[in-house]
Amino acid sequence: MDKIQKYTSKFVENARGYHIKLQELRIILLGQKTVGKSATGNTLLHKEVFASSQNEQCQMQDGEVSGRRVTVIDTPGWWQNSSCCTDETDKEIARGFSLSPHLFGPHAFLLVIDADASFNATHLDAVTSHVELLGDGVWRHTIIVFTRGDWLETNSIEQYIEGEGEALQSLVEQCGNRYHVVDNKNASDGTQISELLEKITETVAANGWGYFVPDQQIFQTLEERRRKVKEGAMLRQSQVKATRESLGGMLHYHLASVALYGNLLKLLCQSVSTLLLYVM
Predict the structure, then answer these.
(1) What would the pLDDT profile of 2-57 be if each residue is shown by its tens digit?
(2) CA 1, 34, 162: angle at the middle one, nearest 5?
(3) What is the pTM of this model?
(4) Helices then strands (H, E): number in the chain?
(5) What share of the chain is helix, strand, coil (3-state, %, to 5)?
(6) What is the rounded (10 degree) CA torsion for 187, 13, 208, 59?
(7) pLDDT tens-digit profile of 56-100?
(8) Nearest to 78 by CA among 113, 33, 125, 109
(9) What 3-state class would DSSP assign to 111?
(10) How far, in Å, are 3, 35, 164, 258 from residue 167 at the CA level?
């Protein structure tokens, strides 16, 4: 963790010299449901513009923050379990790019994680499955934002990262050890946002002052997934139909057999009755 602390100090120090070079920032919020994405967007813009409820569509808001025009796009959150991932959620996240002003890509992604909750391999799988869909280069533009900073109390964020184990540590390293802590309950604390903006600016500088250009294959990938889901649904429907037809045939056979046995039984009874009358 000493390496992370040293890197973070240098990160903030270097960022202070870049603020004048970037007068506009475009940011996309990513994360699981209920981790405080929307609240982070509100804190970042210093106003209540994103609904706290679990939105299913991208929302864009902007404002002036510390003398810069900041555009924030809030995306739908995903479920903790990657097996619950839906194609619609990923398509809506991808649609967030089209909301960016002038159709320019975002300068940074803020990957929001709740510091008041555990982070294990299941969470990592869900994060990876959604974020990597945007392209391999997305990690170079991503900063982890830990919410509920008040929960840490006397503990440092480095202690939290170390305590959560390999899953969270690997994600932090994947993001180049770029992370920040916010306390959305203390939204009036402008320092936490000014420091976050400095880290974002440092990230943009490290990427040659350019913005993220999504991999065009993202849309092909989504279409391919949509096609596979549709084909899977059609296959299941055909299997269900075949099963029903098979069961229907078997039922028809059994009913015919029952009818046949019934007729035989009826004839047998009639024969016995006739025989009894003859004997009597």
Answers:
(1) 444 444 444 444 444 444 457 899 999 999 998 999 999 999 999 999 987 667 88
(2) 10
(3) 0.72
(4) 8, 6
(5) 60, 15, 25
(6) 0
(7) 889 999 999 988 999 999 999 988 765 555 677 888 888 887 787
(8) 33
(9) strand
(10) 18, 17, 7, 63
